[in-house]
Every structure is written in C-alpha cells, then in structure tokens.
Structure prediction request, 226 residues.
Amino acid sequence: MTSKIIIIEGLDGCGKSTQLALLEARFRDCRFLTFPNYDSPAGEIITEYLSGELSESGPLHSAYSASTFYAADRYISYRKDWRVDWLSGRTIISARYTTSNAIYQMTKLDRSQWEDYCRWLYDYEYEKLGIPAPDAVIFLDVPVEVSQKLLTARYAGDEGRKDIHEADPEYLKRCREAVRYAAGHDPYAKWYMLNCCYDGELRTPESIHKELVRMIGNIINGGEQT
Prediction:
C-alpha cells in the first residue's frame, strides 16, 4: 500500500488536538505529527512571532517572512525526525502543515496576490526545501463565533493568553474565506470539508471522530470522499 500524507486543518479552537489524540488510538500504524513544533529551534522564532515581537511594517513582508518561520520548522522536523518513516512507506497524519501557511499567511494579502503567494509557497516548501507534499487535507470547519467561545473556555476567560491570531476574530473570518480559495487552488492535495457544528453548536467529539475516521480510512484505501 502506498503511503500517504493526510493533513488535519482547522482554525484555532476547532478541536484539532482532541481529534488527533482520538485518531492516534485508532490508526496505530500511522505516524502522527503536530505543527508547529515549539520545542524546535524554529519553534522559538514562531513563539516570538505569535507573541507580536516580530512585527513587520506591512502585510506583504509579514506574510512571506512568517511563512519562512513555519516552513523552517517543518523542514527541520522532516529532516531530523519523520523522514525515515515517510521513506519506509508509513502513512503520515499531521495536525497543520504547509496548508496552514496558505490559510493564515495568504489572508494578510490582497486577494489579487493570493495566486502568486500560493505558487510561491508550494514551490518553496515542496520543491525548494523538498518537504513531501500532502495527498489530502481535511478541514475541521467551525464558525469563528463558536471557536472563539472554545478558546475563551480553554484559557479560563483570560483573553490576554490568546496569541495574535487567536485574539483577532475578524482576521480568523478572513482565514475561513482563504480556506475556500486554498481548497480550490491546491495542485497537490485534495481538500475535504468536515462540518463540525450543528444548529450553531459544536458537535460532540465522538460524532466528529466517527466521520473523520471514515474519511481517513477511505483516503488511505484509495476511496473517494463526498
């Protein structure tokens, strides 16, 4: 069976960590990853960026400079950690990947620049750095209003603990728009949307997990999703 790279994406507060933990217990033969890796050398830079210490003069510089921080983190992780697993044919399931740059950094730019940015991003990470391109992306879709409530609960009501992305609901709404664009303009991976809410409330982790397992199982086995 040919190995695959499957990415679990979603905006902050959508429940990625919960779902990844459940998936690890279900797909024991797969290698699981989470990005960013805050314990890596590049992760220290990302921490400074998310705290607002590395602010740029304009969105154009910020989108590209921040993208390189996250790309370096993935490159280090691939070369020093999971490259052997990938080359041995093991399927990789990752929470966030290059696709997160497409969501979070592209959003900073004018929409007329999105195509150029995506072309640069995929060439930089997959071709120039040689990080394997994913086969599929499953986006856990949660309205920003719902995810903000979950983030507030996560930080026990302390809004000051949110990073620069989590603390900006309007920015996250634009990111959700960027997801639709990225899903339709990715030459490498097929994107799937998983609706995680019902009647304005987050579905139970168990119901989301059940659907996620079905989707991943079909992707691994070469089936088509709807």
About this structure: The chain has a mean pLDDT of 87. The longest helix spans residues 59-87. Helices lie at 16-26, 41-50, 59-87, 98-104, 114-128, 144-154, 169-184, 205-220.
